[in-house]
Design a protein that fits this description.
mainly alpha, 3 strands, globular
């Protein structure tokens, strides 16, 4: 089974080729979703002019439930929530996209070589953020609640949902493994 390992300050992750493909697929789906409605993706958010330009546009709460979970409203008051979102969402989206792209780059090495192996020199914080966002996205789509594990256990092996639940719980295990090493 895949797991993170630590050697001094360095982290690595051993993966099968199938696991690498699953992670890349999830990362790419989430990157695509985060790009929807992102009118600021072409701005360099470190550029003061770009920041000024992005603040002049209205940014509304996303309609997609996964995006709303990843980019929640900060306030119940719609006007305050809109102002907060306008000032913060472009940078938050950009950070989430950067983190996911970095994880994809690490995983692509294994996939390009078409073999299982170790992804080395990982930034633990980057991987924790990516795993957290992937789990949140899956939890929304699967409508995870306190009864979900019992549902997962009761599903027949042929049920396509069973493998999706399995991926969700596997991501949780990876996240816990990395947190334990920290």
């Amino acid at each position: 089974m895949s797991k993170f390992e630590r050697s001094g300050k360095a982290f690595s992750l051993d993966l099968t080729l199938d696991e690498a493909h699953i992670l890349i697929n999830l990362v790419e789906q989430l990157l695509e979703l985060l790009g929807e409605g992102d009118f600021f993706h072409h701005y360099d958010m470190n550029d003061p002019f770009a920041q000024l330009m992005s603040l002049q546009h209205e940014v509304v709460a996303p309609d997609d439930s996964v995006l709303l979970r990843l980019l929640p409203n900060a306030y119940n008051d719609p006007e305050a929530a809109g102002d907060f979102r306008r000032y913060t969402e472009p940078a938050i989206r950009s950070t989430k996209q950067r983190v996911l792209r970095e994880v994809r780059t690490h995983l692509a090495i294994l996939v390009d070589e078409d073999k299982a192996g170790t992804v080395a020199d990982l930034e633990a914080d980057t991987w924790l953020m990516a795993l957290n966002d992937l789990r949140l996205a899956l939890s929304v789509r699967l409508e995870i609640n306190e009864d979900s594990f019992d549902l997962f256990e009761s599903l027949p092996d042929e049920d396509p949902q069973k493998s999706i639940y399995a991926v969700y719980y596997w991501l949780g295990w990876l996240q816990e493994n990395l947190l334990t090493l920290l």
